Amino acid sequence: MTITTTTDTKPRVWIGCLACYNEGRLVGDWHDASDADEVTTADVHSRASSHEELWCFDIENIPVRREMSPHEAAEWGRVFDEVDEHQREALYAWVASGDYVAEGTGDLPSTSDFQERYCGHWEGFDDYARELADDIGLLHDVPEEIATYFDWDSWIRDLGFDYSTCGADTGGIYVFRAL
Ligand SMILES: [Zn+2]
Which DSSP string do the residues of 35-73 spell out, in sequence order? Predict the structure, then answer.
């Protein structure tokens, strides 16, 4: 069975003023990551300010654990906007696993490679494999009295070499085709 979850996956960043921060004051607020590069220093200070540089001091739902510029945060936000909401957690897990395809030379994932590889959220690899066997009609032409003796364990084990999986926080696994 596939699993459907409704966790909050919207990438957000806490954008603050770097000059204020260096003076020991936290002046800033949370924003959707995709809007991060549109936030101005006037927004951050709630008035015109001579302070120029903004910085993302805290991040949420972005799969890298570090501070970043609002420009980079906006790129992360747009990457996650490109995939359907129900796939965002899988994209997050794919990047967090470290075993993913990056876009260019940075950390940002390639969403087209993600789409090509992602095979869904499943209780376990067995569930995915049995559904796949059904879909491709693996035992379609085999008489039932013979199909009973089919070695599922070894078929599923071999199939597993063509895939990678990562655990989902909400239970089950995300399955990816290894290309
Ligand atoms: Zn400031």
Answer: GGGG--HHHHHTS--S---EEEEEEES-SS-S-B-HHHH
How far, in Å, from the CA of 15 to the mean position of ligand 1? 11
CA neighbor of 178 nearest in space, from 165, 167, 107, 95: 165
Give the whole-number percent of the chain exceeding pLDDT 90: 88
Q: Tell me the CA–centroid distance for residue 47 and ligand 1, in Å.
A: 10
Q: How far is the CA of 107 from the centre of ligand 1 (A)?
A: 29
Q: Does pLDDT of 27 surpass 70? A: yes
| Token pair for 100 | 């993913």
For 129-139, what is each residue's pLDDT tens digit? 999 999 999 99
CATH architecture of structural domain 10-82: Roll (3.10)
Confirm whether pTM is higher than 0.90.
no
Query: Ligand 1 mean position to 101 CA, how many Å?
Result: 37
pLDDT for residue 65 is more than 90: no
Residue 24 CA to ligand 1 centre (angstroms)? 10
What is the CA(17)–ligand 1 centre distance, in A? 5
Question: In the chain, which segments carry CATH 3.10.20?
Answer: 10-82
